[in-house]
Design a protein that fits this description.
By secondary structure, the protein is of the alpha/beta class. The chain is built from 18 helices and 13 strands. Helix content is about 45%, strand content about 15%.
Length: about 400
């Protein structure tokens, strides 16, 4: 399961939690297990924002005192006003005396825990409390929050009724300094194993403006992300942002900078070696999705042929990369609510791509099928015009 596929499941579970609360049942905690840097934190924050819920991230691996998790122990005294009783922390007694409360003379103080500052307090607002790096926390902390995970409470305090508990963990693969979850811990929450998907990352990278050449590089060399743990979505994004100010990648000075930055990000010359080869093969010059949509069709078509037919042979990996980048661009374009006239321009260009194959096939049938099927499924009204063309109707039918 990739980070995008888990999104609908998480939203369902959060909705289900709210229904469980209404029925007087305990909410269900969720643990996302995956390699570092694949976007676990980002997707949880995004879900909270899209739901209009509050959000708080607490990195468990950075905490040093058990009191940071469970709260500071404090004495509480029973105080009485008329027929009303309250348990009051020792330091608040003077304030309650001023309000007319009196200490119960025959009642002994009890020990409780002050509510930690990170705990949300609004009982009516939906809230996502994200406990990051659960498996990298001190084992004492992991044990301390088991009651919080299962019941949403610890000793004398509770999480608000609409507060969801989501955790993240790294796998016990030997690459991380983690504590493996035992059966008792795993059974207290739902655990999802999430894997990195470079195509999902490319969609995010397009939205945040990662330079196009490096998105293409990641898509055409996905093996870099399986080589070792220092190369992941987070470190590659760091590398891409560090290269943002380099105007052109293909001159000697730029390549020297890129190699140094790459070694600093990944620890060796593996990525820079592949990137130099990528640039020498002119793959950094692939046509961009915006030009595919907006450029003059004759010029665009010739560039597509030059890009896809390398050394007179059809390059399926380049064709797949260009199709994905085009799909990402159009999806983002439609999601921004572009005017109908502009949408027609996008649709017309799709018609050009699907029907103008007199010289050479630009994209294989399976790539076009996935592209049209995906866009039509998500934006059926925008893509209605495509159904007028028999070649495209056939692709939608499959």
């Amino acid at each position: 399961m990739n980070i995008e596929e888990i999104k609908s499941t998480l939203n369902y579970l959060l909705d289900n939690n709210l229904e469980l609360v209404e029925q007087g049942l305990d909410k269900i905690a969720i643990n996302i297990v995956g390699e570092a840097g694949i976007g676990k934190t980002s997707i949880i924050k995004q879900i909270a924002e899209e739901r209009g819920a509050g959000y708080k991230r607490l990195n468990l691996s950075e905490l040093e005192e058990i009191g940071d998790i469970v709260g500071i122990p404090q004495k509480e005294f029973l105080m009485i006003k008329d027929n009303e009783e309250k348990r009051v922390a020792e330091k608040l007694i003077p304030q309650f005396v001023n309000l007319g409360y009196n200490l119960c003379p025959d009642c002994d103080p009890v020990m409780s825990y002050a509510i930690p500052e990170w705990v949300p307090t609004d009982p009516d607002k939906e809230f996502v409390l994200f406990l990051d790096d659960f498996s990298r926390a001190n084992p004492l902390f992991m044990q301390a929050i088991m009651s919080l995970v299962q019941f949403g409470e610890y000793a004398s305090w509770k999480l608000p009724r609409k507060c969801h508990l989501v955790l993240s963990s790294n796998p016990d693969s030997g690459e991380y300094n983690v504590t493996d979850l035992d059966a008792a811990q795993r059974s207290r929450m739902i655990n999802f194993d999430v894997e990195f998907d470079v195509q999902v990352w490319s969609k995010w990278a397009d939205k945040v403006g990662i330079r196009s050449e490096l998105i293409n590089f990641a898509l055409l060399c996905p093996e870099i992300f399986t080589r070792k743990s220092t190369i992941n979505a987070r470190s590659f994004t760091l590398f891409a942002n560090a290269c943002r100010g380099i105007k052109q990648l293909d001159n000697e000075q730029s390549l020297e900078k890129i190699c140094l930055i790459s070694k600093g990000c990944f620890g060796d010359d593996y990525v820079s070696g592949l990137l130099v080869q990528f640039i020498h093969n002119h793959l950094d010059k692939l046509i961009g999705a915006e030009e595919i949509v907006n450029g003059e069709w004759k010029v665009v078509k010739n560039k597509l042929i030059d890009n896809i037919y390398r050394k007179n042979s059809y390059d399926a990996s380049v064709a797949s990369t260009l199709t994905l980048r085009l799909s990402n661009y159009i999806e983002q374009y439609f999601a921004q609510g572009s005017a109908a006239g502009k949408s027609d321009k996008v649709i017309d260009r799709l018609v050009d791509i699907c029907t103008d194959d007199k010289d050479k096939t630009l994209f294989s049938e399976d790539l076009l099928f996935r592209l049209i099927k995906h866009l039509h499924a998500d934006y059926p009204q925008r893509c209605q015009k495509l159904l007028k063309y028999p070649q495209i109707r056939q692709k939608l039918i499959g």
